Amino acid sequence: MAEKSWHLITYDVRDPKRLRKVAKKLEGYGERLQYSVFRCRMDRLALEKLCWELAEIMAANDDLLVMPMCSRCAERVPLHSTGDQSAWAADPPTFRIV
């Protein structure tokens, strides 16, 4: 199984029709933090698929920013962000060192 990692995705789409399509597409991949900001936890293949799907929707004058985040960074989401940050915590280890 491929390792999943966190990504912060934000966009600026000039056309309202394309804007709705981009937002709808991202809702299928992650959680909306603000109007055009999403957090998504996915593996490399899912990220590539998402970027390809968005490229099919977006125009050359639209902007997309995909920022990978390490687990430690994701755990330190500022308290002023909306929503429940507990989902940002790293998965507990599946082993124990004794």
Walk me through this protein's architecture.
With 98 residues, the protein is an alpha+beta fold. The protein has a single domain, classed as 2-Layer Sandwich (Alpha-Beta Plaits). It has helices spanning 16-27, 44-57, 71-75; strands at 5-12, 31-34, 37-42, 63-69. The chain has a four-stranded antiparallel β-sheet. Strand 2 (31-34) and strand 3 form a beta hairpin. Helix 1 runs antiparallel to helix 2 (44-57). Belongs to the CRISPR-associated endoribonuclease Cas2 protein family. Pfam families: CRISPR_Cas2 (PF09827). InterPro entries: CRISPR_associated_Cas2, Virulence_VapD/CRISPR_Cas2.
Give the gist of this structure.
One of its GO terms (biological process) is maintenance of CRISPR repeat elements. InterPro entries: CRISPR_associated_Cas2 (IPR021127), Virulence_VapD/CRISPR_Cas2 (IPR019199). With 98 residues, the chain is an alpha+beta fold.
Which features does this protein show?
four-stranded antiparallel sheet, alpha+beta, 32% helix, elongated, 4 strands, single chain, Alpha-Beta Plaits, 3 helices, 98 residues
